[in-house]
Amino acid sequence: MRGPRRPPDSFLPHERRTGGDPVASGGTLDLVGRAAELERVDRLLDGARGGRPGLLVVEGDAGVGKTAVLQAAAARARGFGQVTARGVESEAALPHAALGELLGPLRPLLGEVPPGQAAALAAALGWGPADVPGDRHLVAAGTLSLLAAAALRAPLLVVVDDLQWVDPESAAAVLFAARRVHGDRTAVLLARRPGADPPAGASVLRLADLDPAAVAELLAGAVAGPVARRLGERLGGNPLALLEVAGALSAGQRAGREPLPATLPAGPVLTAALEPELAALPPGARLAVLLLAAADDGRAGTVAAALARAGTDAEAALDAAEDRRVVVRSGDALGFRHPVLRSLVWSRAAPADRRRAHLLLAETARTGDDDARTWHRALATTGPDEALAGELAALAGRVRGRRGASAASAALERAAALTRDATRAAELLAAAVRDAAVGGDAARARSLAERVLRAEAPAAARAEVLHVLGRVEQDTGSVPAARDLLQAAAGLATGRTAAWVLADLALVQHRLGDVAGMQATARRASAATDDPDPLQRALAAWVTGMAAVHRGDPGTGRSHLQRALDTAEAHAGSRADPRLLPLLTLAVGWLPDPLAAVPVVERRLREVRDVGALGVLVAVLAMTAHGRAHLLGDHAGAFADAGEAVELAGQLGYVADAAPALELLAWEYAARGRHEEAAAHLERARALVVRAGTAGVAAHLALTAAACALCRGDPAGAARLLEERRAVDGGAGALGEPLGIAPLLVETWQALGRQAEAAALAEDYARASRPALPATAALVARCRALACPDDAAATVLFERALAAHGQAPDRFEEAHTRLLFGERLRRSGQRTRAREELTAAADAFAAADMAYWAGRAEGELAATGRTARPRRPLPEEPLTPQETRIAVLAARGASNREIAAELFLSPKTVEHHLGSVYRKRGLRSRVQLARLLG
């Protein structure tokens, strides 16, 4: 609710800093017993200097030396710019509190951040207007861009201490940025206590207790050698505990002239060692440290004002706390000597004393700091207070506008506790559930939802909670569980909420292959097809259309789905809602003219990127990857989209949407001849559908598995998989098209000599498909040609297929048809004509990096007697999905900064990947790149 807790230093390389930050000041620092740990730190810093960024998490118990390692890193980071922040337990509910502290020194560089990201970041940190479009992920992208801008000036060290107490919004932004830098001169160093799983992509440095030799070295000069040995034996090797206990001994005990106390601190050693220091504080100083523990800004002035309000001599109280080394003061900045002291102060205080501290802070809050005043009042209040509940709800709205969904959820939960009105409390808790889900905290959303559902909550609140839980389960948990929750919500919801619930329910039923359920959902949705609200009409048309397609009535389905798209496009409110995009994208394959909808999806995809709706982006990228591959034949774009979807899904914890992207990647890797990677991605996809609960209806995986088998030279295995799929769902294609497996199954049966079955299936496919579309007409003609026993008739059919391919955008399928035609021509003795078709196919496959297909075409060419020819060489080192995406955008003319903004990367990361593309392809300029991909 506030900005940085203390005035930041200027952002300068380390040797030019002049203090103000205890983590980033001082000279070279060596730590006792930590030589190996400091070597890890040095490697991190050396990598950053050389443009190899890194993320290192220092993990260990309280007092083991995490902060000391961070201080040593700062001292060793000569020539680095440094930004630092520290998690504070009392600020864990304040959105972007730590991020504001971390990025404060970089605020002058905000103009170098892409405008949408800069506006979202400024809104979140209180640097600009709050009412700007975008979600929490756009703040994370802005964090990445701001850090990248700083790293252009000097290598950058990002230090965050006590990560376990950093507010969720700040932690998510920092981790997002740390995982997406490649080529930037950035080192990210985080410290936290053990407990949670390590962040994805991070190296972990676990600090253990010191060994006996290091204990002796640590205490040398403080106590006699034998005393040091006995302290180590009795206390272990926690450095801070050893120093605290040694400091509490008498002179005779330290020298070994007197025996050690019979009972040294027991239990949690560090806690027991520090408690006497707090107990020795005079009353005024005890109040001062309690106020500091409750405050959220780390300012001496804040504590002094509250002390004065209590009638206490503020200077005397603060001096006493500082003299006893409980707090450290630098100008107006005030903090505890060690975070454990804050925890001890707060945990040992009586509830009444805590409430008094919050009340004093509320009464003395600075003018204009209404959020802090409201929050402290809320924490000081024990009984119902309707006015305060209303203020907290308003506070939640303000922090939500600054992308502080987690803090908004906490404020609403507290507001619910302060109202006597049970209905109002349920509504507030329902809103808290929604904000927790938006903030990415699925566990908290579920916990709050249980409270609403256990209470006598009104139907609207229960419907909202069930809807939110259904979406959470759909994205991160069990799809069958999501169906149950959404069905329950559908029985309670009305109006727009009902329309969204039914649309989400239909989407889940689609994923589960629940055709009967979709028909029931469509009957309920049909009541809104003539609703005056355009959004409800669009959603109802979408549900009705999807149900029709799944029951085998594609004509009716197409008309409803087209109406859904047209209605959504005509309504400004619908155009601005990113939640519609996954639904509309899924429908594209069934539209009367799918290609006409592609520009709409592309435009909306750019809009989703602009507002940083990464959760929606994962689902849409997975769908567009399949659309690019199976509608457009844009396999470079499909490879890139699927790779980006998998990467983002891993960072966000989304399960269901990652599986189809992994499936598509498996196909693309197989086509490139990278069979081990194809198998690995296919296995990951299978594991995810099992985890999501859709394994029983995941027959769509069979199509990819069959394609992979064919690329491995196993037509029998491919046929078996396709036959199994046909038995399960009739053989729908990758986009749900009727009998869409036919082109691949006809090809495998023909390769196995099962000509009669291939011919029958080719005719079935012609009747079931939409030959009015050129792409489909081409595949129908190709299937008939493959199954035709007469060479002359087959030639006519192949030529018909190629003519239809010429009217469709899919160059891969055209090359595939040329390959099959060339094989048929060679077998019939028409070698010259065969070479023409096979040469065109081989060149097209090579241009698309399709190593398997290019190799197969070259093999057929060799069989015609053609042994050598000038051709595009296949690359020895293939591009990654991200390199492919960056190459495609660069070939279209986008600058590095524009590519970085679109893909939520840093310009240096784009430069790094683009350099890799040039190296792998032997290119020197974007002109050559555009020619290669154009």
Automatic annotation (TrEMBL):
Gene Ontology annotations for the cellular component aspect, listed alphabetically: cytoplasm
Segments of skewed composition (Basic and acidic residues): 1-19
One Pfam short name: AAA_16
Gene Ontology biological process terms, A to Z: regulation of DNA-templated transcription
Gene Ontology molecular function: adenylate cyclase activity; ATP binding; DNA binding
Keyword 4Fe-4S: no
Keyword line: ATP-binding, DNA-binding, Nucleotide-binding
Sequence intervals crossing the membrane: none
Domain HTH luxR-type: 872-934
Region (Disordered): 1-28
Protein name: Response regulator containing a CheY-like receiver domain and an HTH DNA-binding domain
Organism for this UniProt entry: Geodermatophilus telluris
Lineage: Bacteria, Bacillati, Actinomycetota, Actinomycetes, Geodermatophilales
